């Protein structure tokens, strides 16, 4: 009879520990993401401080696909469609980020160049991205493409030929842009250059900064503690009720 009274409590604690462990796992993951992003921002800050230019051909280096470098070089913007990356906000306003293919004079794979952000009106009318002729000298931050999140839809061709994309995947965009291949990294164009639209060198646009990850970690650990406290209170109440029943 004593065993039958203990079984539900043991099962309840097993469940509470399982849930608390899951919450702690999520909190630990958020702490890891905060650490990764702090390290990334520190690397970017150092690169922007030094601004030691590397060749644009480095954008195609597989070993540095997730790294950040300052790069510069001359070349031309390839004719053809622009890429408009959807779901990009700036100061609370919805818009798109415009990219065009740049072909370096010094050789190497063509790469996508971030020309800046453009707002969308209430009708979601896509802004025009004028073609850029002649040879240009460009400089900027070589960076991995913006985080795709969970979205994986292919780019959609618009009436004017431009491509509207929800994820910037150079490998998938090469064929629609009539290129044999595109470099894995993109060039975030120096805002000081008189080309394109308003822009910055923010490497975490539309994504969570380290502080938000830290805040979520605290919430997950707090939930884990709340589960254990609740289990403890319920166990105490159950035992007290059992003692009172035995005393009666």
UniProtKB/TrEMBL annotation:
One Pfam family it belongs to: SURF1
Transmembrane annotation, as ranges: 214-236
Keywords: Cell membrane, Membrane, Transmembrane, Transmembrane helix
Membrane listed as a keyword: yes
Protein's cellular compartments: Cell membrane; Membrane
Listed InterPro entries: Surf1/Shy1, Surf1/Surf4
Membrane-topology descriptor: Multi-pass membrane protein
CDD domains named among the record's database cross-references: SURF1
Family: Belongs to the SURF1 family.
Designated name of the protein: SURF1-like protein
């Amino acid at each position: 009879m004593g065993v039958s009274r203990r079984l539900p409590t043991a099962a309840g604690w097993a469940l509470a520990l399982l849930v608390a462990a899951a919450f702690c796992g999520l909190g630990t993951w958020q702490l890891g993401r905060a650490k990764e992003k702090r390290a990334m921002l520190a690397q970017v800050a150092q690169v922007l401080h030094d601004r030691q230019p590397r060749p644009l051909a480095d954008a195609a280096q597989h070993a540095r696909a997730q790294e950040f470098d300052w790069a510069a070089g001359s070349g031309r913007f390839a004719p053809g469609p622009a890429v408009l990356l959807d779901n990009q906000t700036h100061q609370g306003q919805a818009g798109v980020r415009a990219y065009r293919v740049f072909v370096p004079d010094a050789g190497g794979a063509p790469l996508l160049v971030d020309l800046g952000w453009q707002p969308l009106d209430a009708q979601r009318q896509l802004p025009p991205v004028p073609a850029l002729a002649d040879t240009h000298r460009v400089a900027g931050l070589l960076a991995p493409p913006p985080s795709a999140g969970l979205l994986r839809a292919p780019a959609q061709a618009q009436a004017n030929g431009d491509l509207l994309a929800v994820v910037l995947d150079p490998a998938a965009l090469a064929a629609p842009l009539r290129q044999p291949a595109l470099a894995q990294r993109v060039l975030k164009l120096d805002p000081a250059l008189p080309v394109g639209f308003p822009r910055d060198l923010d490497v975490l646009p539309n994504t969570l900064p380290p502080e938000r990850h830290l805040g979520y970690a605290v919430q997950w650990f707090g939930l884990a503690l709340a589960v254990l406290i609740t289990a403890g209170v319920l166990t105490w109440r159950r035992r007290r009720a059992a003692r009172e029943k035995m005393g009666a």
